[in-house]
Design brief:
With 186 residues, the chain is of the alpha+beta class. The protein contains 3 helices and 11 strands. The chain has helices at 2-28, 93-99, 131-134; strands at 45-50, 56-59, 70-79, 82-91, 116-121, 126-130, 144-146, 148-149, 152-153, 160-162, 176-182. The longest helix is centred in the N-terminal third of the chain and has 27 residues, at 2-28. The radius of gyration is 16 Å and the shape is globular. The N and C termini lie far apart (43 Å). 30% of the residues are buried. The structure holds the ligand Nc1nc2c(c(=O)[nH]1)N[C@H]1C(S)=C(S)[C@@H](COP(=O)(O)O)O[C@H]1N2 and molybdenum atom. Molybdenum atom binds at residues 79-80, 168-170.
Protein backbone atom coordinates (compact mmCIF):
# COMPACT_ATOMS: atom_id res chain seq x y z
CA UNK A 1 0.00 0.00 0.00
CA UNK A 2 2.68 2.44 1.14
CA UNK A 3 4.97 1.19 -1.64
CA UNK A 4 2.25 1.80 -4.20
CA UNK A 5 1.74 5.37 -2.98
CA UNK A 6 5.46 6.04 -3.20
CA UNK A 7 5.55 4.60 -6.72
CA UNK A 8 2.70 6.81 -7.93
CA UNK A 9 4.30 9.81 -6.28
CA UNK A 10 7.60 9.09 -8.04
CA UNK A 11 5.75 8.56 -11.33
CA UNK A 12 3.96 11.89 -10.91
CA UNK A 13 7.24 13.69 -10.21
CA UNK A 14 8.85 12.05 -13.26
CA UNK A 15 5.96 13.11 -15.49
CA UNK A 16 6.12 16.68 -14.17
CA UNK A 17 9.87 17.02 -14.65
CA UNK A 18 9.84 15.39 -18.09
CA UNK A 19 6.83 17.43 -19.20
CA UNK A 20 8.58 20.67 -18.26
CA UNK A 21 11.77 19.49 -19.94
CA UNK A 22 10.14 18.39 -23.19
CA UNK A 23 7.92 21.45 -23.51
CA UNK A 24 10.96 23.69 -23.04
CA UNK A 25 12.81 21.77 -25.73
CA UNK A 26 9.72 21.90 -27.97
CA UNK A 27 9.88 25.69 -27.83
CA UNK A 28 13.62 25.67 -28.48
CA UNK A 29 13.36 23.16 -31.31
CA UNK A 30 10.40 23.91 -33.54
CA UNK A 31 11.87 22.34 -36.68
CA UNK A 32 12.06 18.63 -37.45
CA UNK A 33 15.85 18.76 -37.36
CA UNK A 34 17.21 16.58 -34.59
CA UNK A 35 19.67 18.39 -32.35
CA UNK A 36 22.40 16.65 -30.41
CA UNK A 37 19.99 15.95 -27.53
CA UNK A 38 17.12 15.11 -29.90
CA UNK A 39 13.79 15.84 -28.29
CA UNK A 40 14.76 15.02 -24.78
CA UNK A 41 13.51 11.60 -23.80
CA UNK A 42 15.37 8.31 -23.75
CA UNK A 43 14.49 6.03 -26.69
CA UNK A 44 11.97 3.35 -25.79
CA UNK A 45 10.19 5.51 -23.21
CA UNK A 46 7.33 7.87 -23.92
CA UNK A 47 5.18 10.44 -22.20
CA UNK A 48 1.41 10.49 -22.31
CA UNK A 49 0.44 14.01 -21.36
CA UNK A 50 -2.04 16.81 -22.02
CA UNK A 51 -5.66 17.27 -21.07
CA UNK A 52 -5.91 13.92 -19.27
CA UNK A 53 -6.51 12.99 -15.63
CA UNK A 54 -3.69 10.39 -15.54
CA UNK A 55 -0.46 11.60 -17.19
CA UNK A 56 2.03 8.77 -17.57
CA UNK A 57 5.65 7.97 -18.36
CA UNK A 58 5.53 4.60 -20.13
CA UNK A 59 7.77 2.09 -21.78
CA UNK A 60 6.99 -0.05 -24.80
CA UNK A 61 6.27 -3.17 -22.72
CA UNK A 62 3.43 -1.32 -20.96
CA UNK A 63 1.61 -1.40 -24.33
CA UNK A 64 1.42 -5.21 -24.01
CA UNK A 65 -0.48 -5.25 -20.70
CA UNK A 66 -3.66 -7.29 -20.83
CA UNK A 67 -5.90 -4.38 -19.81
CA UNK A 68 -5.13 -2.97 -23.29
CA UNK A 69 -6.75 -5.26 -25.90
CA UNK A 70 -4.10 -6.30 -28.44
CA UNK A 71 -4.67 -5.75 -32.16
CA UNK A 72 -2.86 -7.03 -35.22
CA UNK A 73 -3.07 -5.19 -38.55
CA UNK A 74 -1.33 -5.61 -41.88
CA UNK A 75 -1.01 -2.35 -43.80
CA UNK A 76 0.53 -0.99 -46.97
CA UNK A 77 1.84 2.57 -47.29
CA UNK A 78 4.17 4.40 -49.64
CA UNK A 79 7.57 5.46 -48.41
CA UNK A 80 9.19 7.77 -50.96
CA UNK A 81 6.72 6.39 -53.51
CA UNK A 82 7.66 2.77 -52.85
CA UNK A 83 4.88 0.60 -51.38
CA UNK A 84 5.75 -1.19 -48.13
CA UNK A 85 3.69 -3.80 -46.34
CA UNK A 86 4.09 -4.48 -42.62
CA UNK A 87 2.22 -6.27 -39.86
CA UNK A 88 1.91 -4.40 -36.58
CA UNK A 89 0.84 -5.47 -33.12
CA UNK A 90 -0.24 -3.21 -30.29
CA UNK A 91 -3.20 -1.55 -28.60
CA UNK A 92 -5.50 1.01 -30.15
CA UNK A 93 -4.40 4.60 -29.59
CA UNK A 94 -8.03 5.05 -28.49
CA UNK A 95 -7.62 2.55 -25.63
CA UNK A 96 -4.31 4.08 -24.53
CA UNK A 97 -5.96 7.50 -24.40
CA UNK A 98 -9.10 6.22 -22.68
CA UNK A 99 -7.19 4.63 -19.78
CA UNK A 100 -5.48 8.02 -19.29
CA UNK A 101 -8.95 9.55 -18.77
CA UNK A 102 -9.33 12.46 -21.18
CA UNK A 103 -10.96 15.45 -19.53
CA UNK A 104 -13.77 15.86 -22.05
CA UNK A 105 -16.21 18.53 -20.94
CA UNK A 106 -19.75 17.14 -20.85
CA UNK A 107 -21.09 20.71 -20.91
CA UNK A 108 -19.65 21.28 -24.40
CA UNK A 109 -21.50 19.65 -27.28
CA UNK A 110 -19.26 16.92 -28.76
CA UNK A 111 -16.25 18.27 -26.88
CA UNK A 112 -14.28 15.15 -27.90
CA UNK A 113 -14.42 16.24 -31.55
CA UNK A 114 -12.24 19.23 -30.62
CA UNK A 115 -9.35 16.99 -29.55
CA UNK A 116 -6.20 15.69 -31.27
CA UNK A 117 -3.28 13.45 -30.35
CA UNK A 118 0.07 14.98 -31.28
CA UNK A 119 2.56 12.13 -31.64
CA UNK A 120 6.25 13.10 -31.48
CA UNK A 121 9.44 11.17 -32.02
CA UNK A 122 13.03 11.23 -30.79
CA UNK A 123 14.08 13.04 -34.02
CA UNK A 124 11.41 15.74 -33.35
CA UNK A 125 9.23 14.40 -36.16
CA UNK A 126 5.55 14.89 -35.31
CA UNK A 127 2.10 14.11 -36.71
CA UNK A 128 -1.48 14.54 -35.47
CA UNK A 129 -4.49 12.29 -35.30
CA UNK A 130 -7.86 13.92 -34.67
CA UNK A 131 -9.94 12.24 -31.99
CA UNK A 132 -12.86 12.08 -34.45
CA UNK A 133 -10.77 9.74 -36.63
CA UNK A 134 -10.52 7.13 -33.86
CA UNK A 135 -13.76 7.71 -31.94
CA UNK A 136 -15.94 4.58 -32.29
CA UNK A 137 -18.93 6.80 -33.14
CA UNK A 138 -17.12 8.65 -35.91
CA UNK A 139 -14.44 7.30 -38.28
CA UNK A 140 -13.59 4.45 -35.85
CA UNK A 141 -10.22 4.00 -37.56
CA UNK A 142 -8.03 1.34 -35.97
CA UNK A 143 -5.04 3.55 -35.24
CA UNK A 144 -2.44 1.65 -33.20
CA UNK A 145 0.44 2.48 -30.98
CA UNK A 146 2.44 -0.54 -32.10
CA UNK A 147 5.00 -2.34 -29.93
CA UNK A 148 5.93 -4.87 -32.64
CA UNK A 149 6.65 -4.55 -36.37
CA UNK A 150 6.79 -7.79 -38.41
CA UNK A 151 7.45 -9.76 -35.19
CA UNK A 152 10.28 -7.39 -34.28
CA UNK A 153 9.76 -5.86 -30.81
CA UNK A 154 10.15 -2.08 -30.80
CA UNK A 155 11.14 -1.93 -27.13
CA UNK A 156 14.55 -0.34 -27.68
CA UNK A 157 13.44 2.31 -30.19
CA UNK A 158 9.92 3.17 -29.01
CA UNK A 159 6.43 2.52 -30.38
CA UNK A 160 5.25 3.26 -33.91
CA UNK A 161 2.03 5.07 -34.79
CA UNK A 162 0.04 3.01 -37.30
CA UNK A 163 -2.66 4.75 -39.34
CA UNK A 164 -4.43 2.18 -41.55
CA UNK A 165 -5.81 3.77 -44.71
CA UNK A 166 -3.15 6.45 -45.07
CA UNK A 167 -1.71 6.23 -48.60
CA UNK A 168 1.71 7.64 -47.68
CA UNK A 169 3.76 6.70 -44.63
CA UNK A 170 4.04 10.20 -43.15
CA UNK A 171 1.93 9.45 -40.07
CA UNK A 172 3.61 6.12 -39.37
CA UNK A 173 5.71 7.91 -36.76
CA UNK A 174 8.61 5.75 -35.55
CA UNK A 175 10.52 6.12 -32.25
CA UNK A 176 7.55 7.72 -30.53
CA UNK A 177 8.56 9.47 -27.31
CA UNK A 178 5.49 11.60 -26.58
CA UNK A 179 1.74 11.58 -27.09
CA UNK A 180 0.16 14.94 -26.27
CA UNK A 181 -3.63 14.91 -26.15
CA UNK A 182 -5.36 18.28 -26.18
CA UNK A 183 -7.68 20.64 -28.00
CA UNK A 184 -6.69 23.85 -29.74
CA UNK A 185 -7.64 27.04 -27.86
CA UNK A 186 -9.56 28.33 -30.88
N1 LIG B 1 10.26 9.55 -36.31
C1 LIG B 1 10.01 9.59 -37.61
N2 LIG B 1 9.01 8.85 -38.12
C2 LIG B 1 8.75 8.87 -39.44
C3 LIG B 1 9.48 9.69 -40.32
C4 LIG B 1 10.52 10.48 -39.76
O1 LIG B 1 11.24 11.25 -40.44
N3 LIG B 1 10.76 10.41 -38.40
N4 LIG B 1 9.18 9.71 -41.66
C5 LIG B 1 7.84 9.28 -42.04
C6 LIG B 1 7.71 9.06 -43.46
S1 LIG B 1 7.65 10.47 -44.42
C7 LIG B 1 7.58 7.81 -44.02
S2 LIG B 1 7.25 7.60 -45.66
C8 LIG B 1 7.74 6.59 -43.20
C9 LIG B 1 8.82 5.70 -43.75
O2 LIG B 1 8.77 4.50 -43.08
P1 LIG B 1 10.04 3.53 -43.01
O3 LIG B 1 11.09 4.28 -42.23
O4 LIG B 1 9.56 2.31 -42.29
O5 LIG B 1 10.46 3.25 -44.40
O6 LIG B 1 8.06 6.88 -41.84
C10 LIG B 1 7.40 8.01 -41.31
N5 LIG B 1 7.73 8.10 -39.91
MO1 LIG C 1 7.40 9.78 -46.63
Amino acid sequence: MKRLRLRSLLAAVAVLVLTAFTSASAVANTSAQPGPTSCGLPAGKFLLIGDIARPQFLDVSSLRRDTLPQQTVTVTFRAGGVPQTHTYKGPLLLDVLTQAEPRFDPAIRNDRLRYFASVSATDCYRALVAYGEIDPNFENKKVLLAHTEDDRPLDAEGPRLVVPGDIAGGRYVTNVNRVYFAKPPL
